[in-house]
Amino acid sequence: MDRLLGPDPAADRFLAHRGTSSWGLWRTVVVTAASAAALAVVGTTVVLRSTPLGVGGDPSSAGVSGAVRSSSPRHVTGHDIDCMDGGYTKSTLKLVAEEPVVRLISERSPDGASVPIGKFEASDVAGVAGGSHVFVVFDNSFKIGHFASGLTYVMPDDGKAETNKLLTWPGDDGSDSQFEALTYNATSGTYLVVQESVVNGSGSMVPRIMEVSLGDDAATVHSSCDGSFTFASENKGFEGAAIATAADGTSYLLALCEGNYCAGGKDGRKPGHGRIIVMEREATVGGGCVWVPRQTVAIPKSADFMDYSAISIFNNTRVAVSSQENAAVWIGELELLDGSHLSPNHDHQVHGSHRRSGEAAGADELALFGLSEGKVYDFPRNDLCQRIFCTIEGIHWQEADKLVAVSDKMKSGGKQPFMCMTHDQSIHTFLIPA
User: Fold this and answer.
1) Residue 106 CB: number of other CB atoms within 10 A?
2) pLDDT of residue 56
3) How far, in Å, CA of 155 to CA of 71, rounded?
4) CB–CB of 73/420 below 8 Å?
5) 381: which DSSP letter?
6) What share of the chain has pLDDT > 70, as a percent?
7) Could you tell me which residues come within 8 angstroms of residue 337 by beta carbon, excluding any fewer than 6 positions away?
């Protein structure tokens, strides 16, 4: 019934090729069902109408006060697809493997009835390209998932899975971790874990970046440093991260802002203005450290997304940036620039690029990285061309033509439609079309 009274442009385009509107199809299906099985409660007031309610089938314009919602969690703007377009197979990822996280977990309580975490709000995934396993962070827990990259649930004779487990975090008190990004640093053999935004000693909201080793059973934290970047919105900080090596051999952290312009609110939802903040670690007096912004990279407008949920870089050449709202991923090439100083007035500077965006302290911008125009690929849709991979929060290059992705828990309270539950709290492997 979610779809019944709400317009869905992609679904309508899809059904138009079959000579009917989505409203007409749903009306026919429901009326037939009513004739056969007597839909006593639902039928008479909502279903048996010959025309869509309100303007364009919008229930809000017909006075139906929130009784039903459209198939989209919100009015998603920006990138969309026509599933009947001849190029659909060339621009849609192919799902090749998938498992709910709860099925992969081998650790159980003594009675075998439950797992250590009640829900799995996966926020990012990382590992070594082509490796035998991946690590997953959850923003609702400090535990870190360790899973076979083949998404297998191996049960040898002793009854314990060989690779799948949850690593412990030092000082875990059971609270939410706010872990939003995870990336592997090949230079040091360690991982960087990013907390989206925390309040620092000055009362400002900044990212916190921790360098950790992930062992057989536990994480070891080597350093914890704040980023010299202040967010204007508490829940619109860094959503993804990846390590890249510049032309001079220096490694940098590429931090992905969730909102457009690195902003929250309406400005952050204006599609096509994604930003990546290039950051370098510096030592501070007393043996501490801080991550300092060196460049703001504008994601090409071909990534016409309302939000940006993850970033991954393959072999320092190919970049993937996903969107949860648009259920798509942009893929382009990483360009290594000459490292020269940028003009204070260039279009994508950190300072003043947008009135309500995040701000960097003391940034001297360098021309380190660029991005090619790239191409957008969609996560698979359902038979009505509706988004069903609604909660993609993390991506990782497993191979040159294969991406591993993780999904958050679907939003409750009617903020997302029921079809989003099918693939939430899961790990997926997708093949990129040739």
Assistant:
1) 18
2) 32
3) 39
4) yes
5) B
6) 73
7) 246, 247, 367, 368, 369, 370
Cross-strand bridge partners of residue 244: 252
Helix or strand run (H / E) with residue 35: helix 22-37
Does position 411 have pLDDT exceeding 60, yes or no? yes
Tokens 């030092």, residue located: 170
Any idea which of 24-28, 51-55, 240-244 has the lowest mean pLDDT? Answer: 51-55
Helix (H) or strand (E) holding 22: helix 22-37
Sequence-separated (6 or more) residues with CB below 8 Å from residue 66: 414
CA distance 336 to 248: 9
d(CA 330, CA 374): 7
Residue 140: which pLDDT band, with cuts at 50, 70 and 90? very high
Distance CA 397, CA 33 (A): 45
Tokens of 205: 């909201």
Nearest residue to 51 via CA among 40, 39, 41, 59:
59
- Distances in Å between the Cα of 365 and the Cα atoms of 206, 293, 296, 351 are 19, 8, 8, 10
Examine the pLDDT at 156 and tell me if it is beyond 70.
Answer: no
Report which of 283, 205, 194 is spatially closest to residue 243, judged by C-alpha positions.
194
H or E segment to which residue 30 belongs: helix 22-37
What Rg value do the Cα atoms of the chain yield, rounded? 23
Number of C-alpha atoms within 13 angstroms, CB side, residue 121? Answer: 14
| End-to-end CA gap in the chain | 37
